[in-house]
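Quick question: what would this complex look like in 3D?
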Amino acid sequence: MDATPPTLLDLSTYLLSKTGKTARERLATRLAAHDLRLWHMAVLAALADFGPHAQRDLAARLGIDSSDLVRVIDDLAAADRVERTRDTTDRRRVQVTLTPAGRTTLADLQTEARIVQADLLAPLTPAEQAQLHALLLRVHLSADRP
Amino acid sequence: MDATPPTLLDLSTYLLSKTGKTARERLATRLAAHDLRLWHMAVLAALADFGPHAQRDLAARLGIDSSDLVRVIDDLAAADRVERTRDTTDRRRVQVTLTPAGRTTLADLQTEARIVQADLLAPLTPAEQAQLHALLLRVHLSADRP
DNA sequence: CCGATGTCAGATCCACTGAAATGA
DNA sequence: CTCATTTCAGTGTATCTGACATCG
């Protein structure tokens, strides 16, 4: 009595949406143990990969509303994971920089993410997992720039 | 300045979550043109695939909260896409049945879903799309029963 | 026990404020 | 140089969704 309707299982759209939601929820649960949410991790990752950003640029990169980003950064700054500094040449801007503690936190979160991933993708062989990743990556890159 | 952090792109968890969200949003937009949302489609599909359900069983099958299902069925019943009838043997139960109009609607929604899917998966060859579908299906089936 | 109503928390979106830069 | 306009961080809020709690 609990099987999913085949009509839906036939749709890749449905499977993507559903497994995506599962992945999201499981990761969010893990991050909650660190008192963080998905956006916190995304911000830390962006700063680690691309260096300090003005808040506006960070919001544009991550596709988050800048008013919401303010609150995410409030949290991270309160825990000394990022640092806010006024831009000296344009005093409207605030540079956001990753702290060493933030870098450590990010590494922990990545470990959590890999645990979730290993668990979720357990039914696939490593080769299949890599295949899935490659396919998803291509879909993502094309969907992000239509 | 708008590239996604590689730290995130390395995580299948992230790609699943992100592309899943994209798929969901695009389909939801399409369904909104019919004044319907994703749960409406899921309910129609379940009724088409498995026949009439009591509301409680339908909620269990779809993994939706029964209080939310009530309102979804309210909408569908108001548009004559499903019909509510009291169970004669257990008068607490309400049987929900698909109407011919509901079946037609479902077919329309499936068409919409395939359009979204063709668009989203356009960067992949048909063989790759089938591969992605098969992999996602296995992940979904295992994730649904942990 | 089952369907139905009400409510609450989280996320996203949108409008706005005040300070600071830009340019006519 | 002045004033209007634009840009930026930050605040407040409306809306929508999903989870829960309770009622009949």
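Answer marked as accepted. Residues 54-56, 66-67, 69-71, 74, 90, 92-94 of chain A lie near DNA strand D (CB under 10 Å from a C1').
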